Predict the 3D structure of the following.
Amino acid sequence: MPQFKLIAVDLDDTLLDDDLRVSLRTRQALKKAAEKGMIVTIATGRMYRSALPMALDLNIGGPIITYQGALVKNSCSGEVLVDRPVPLDLARIVLAEGYKAGVHMNVYLNDTLLIDSITPEGAGYAKLAQVEMVPVGSLLEFLKNDPTKVLYIADPSLLDRLKGELQKKFAQSLYITKSKPNYLEFMHPQATKGRALKALVERCGIARDETMAFGDSYNDLDMIEFAGMGVAMGNAPEDVKKKADYVTSTNNDDGVAEVIEKYVLL
């Protein structure tokens, strides 16, 4: 077993329990890992402004991976390491398809959450992420610059159908993934957690097999596969668990702490 030097951990349904809290046991495990000299970072689909308070609360002072890897930014200095937005022409096609399908859409521009109008889906998302929504009317008419990300929120079965259709339509020109059953996300083709983690470890001079990554969903897959030890949560879908090196307990049962205590705090 290699000596691990970096831990990357997803937020929702991984580090956070169902009440959006980090348990005392998990806090202590992360703190002790950092005290041993390990780099601890967040790797989330959330906005930077949504992830930043959590990073600071956990004393994570370096780069954090946000927007699925589209934006990697230092939580202390504000230095941007990675910035990969969605090309405007493709974002407009995604928006047009979303309007046609009748789904709620979020657009992220300059770390601001833009919506067409307030909907129950949008309000639920804003409450979860603890960010403000900015209603702008028609997103197609408003958007003039490359957004960081576009998100559909709708019934899981509808999103599954749209995912299949739009992956064929965009081929390799966009990265399309589900972060939750009712969230379908559209990013730059290189904006993935795995690629962002690769860029981060190269910058830090850390070997791939010295990294550990935790996740629970399909948007975590390439990060789990990239890491020296890829860990799937007990609440992850079976397809994600099959790709992991280790399956831990659920997000409500200190799954992150369990692995850190076993393999890092020896």
Notes: The first strand starts at residue 6 and ends at 9. The radius of gyration is 18 Å. The mean pLDDT is 95.
